[in-house]
Design goal:
1 helix; mainly beta; TEN-like_YD-shell
Length: 495
Amino acid sequence: FDSRGQMTRYTDCSGRSTGYDHDEDGNLTRVTDAEGKVVRISYNRLGLPETVNSPGKQQDRYTWNALGLMSSHRRITGSVESWRYTPRGLLAAHTDEEKRETRWQYTPEGRVAALTNGNGAQYRFSHDADGRLVREVRPDGLSRTFILDDSGYLTAIQTTGTQGGVRRETQQRDALGRLLRTENEHGQRTFSYNRLDQITAVTLTPTEAGQQQHRMQADTVRFEYDRSGWLTAEHAGNGSICYQRDALGNPTDITLPDGQHLTHLYYGSGHLLQTALDGLTVSEYERDSLHRQIMRTQGQLATYSGYDDDGLLSWQRSLASGSAPVLPGQRPARQGCVTSRDYYWNNHGEVGTIDDGLRGSVVYSYDRSGYLTGRSGQMYDHDRYYYDKAGNLLDNEGQGAVMSNRLPGCGRDRYGYNEWGELTTRRDQQLEWNAQGQLTRVISGNTETHYGYDALGRRTRKATYGRHTGHTARSRTDFVWEGFRLLQENVQQQG
């Protein structure tokens, strides 16, 4: 630190340092990373940043109004987005680089009353006397009413569909405000906690309608913790997962429901070095001075990666085992590589071309706001993409705006929706949803697929049936989760 107490250098777990320089007013003007690459920042008289220059192509310029609120952002390409405010400093409008404008309106108390998108379609909001949101009306006509108790906690959400149907979810809380129970027409969920307010169990109890209409099943997910508060076990319908952790809380050993052990090795503050399954190495990793992955092994392959001055992925090469060693940062020649890719980025930081050794080149184009407008390549037709002023994808340049924000289709696909805004038809597919907004059935031709979820809303099973061959599943897939990260799939094929 310097004499003002401002950080001038940070040294990480591997002894690599990042330097920080400040001007006489204490503003951060320069950041030098462990590879010597520099980000430079300049300021106006009020101490607000005017320019940010990255090590590579990127440069950003900012202007501010008299209240110190950002009024514009200009990129190195010259494209500009801007913001306007009310006299009270509330955001009134945002105009993106393609002149698409979003506007906000407020009540005399300064609460958002309406949001108008680039098409002119509105979201409208209502508040109670205490300023709490109690109603929302969307451009497609769907509305939601929020019912609060005297303490301000949500007790119910009532959704009115575009055809007049009503869905209602109730919520119950304890004196501490913790959620104890939620209930809708298809199921009830209850929540339990320990003395540290950590959740210990979530139980799903389907209603008769949930069972009959969506094949929902009762389910409980339970959690265990150690004295430090780290999660040590999760028990769910597809089995239990147990964790061992290092002193920093990183999981070093995960026991899967079938008894297999997934182990991780780390260095420093938690940078992954190796992953193994039952003692057999799955992947090993090497990292550069910024801890970015520069090499990864997978079986008999080793994939090497390099980055440009802005930290964007520049190239990848996969080599078979036994190939000549590759020095850090060295880009192997394509000859002899199993796979190879080079990435080329535009001045906005968007990938412009991917040159793949197997599939050839793919070229992408964008508008000034970063919306994808084109894709072409050796394995693709020349695809063009069009948008309305709210950013909805259109079939062609002449199509009118999608005022409801419900896309009528894309390409050869036509879409249909229910009154809740959920997709119900796509080409020859029919889709069904429960009151939780979870996809529960897809009918496609002679095939019917059912989906099931646990008490946390994670998809835990998928079964596919022949529509005219009885009730025996052709295949079944069970999903195992580590928290909300998919960890394992178990597939069973039937005769």
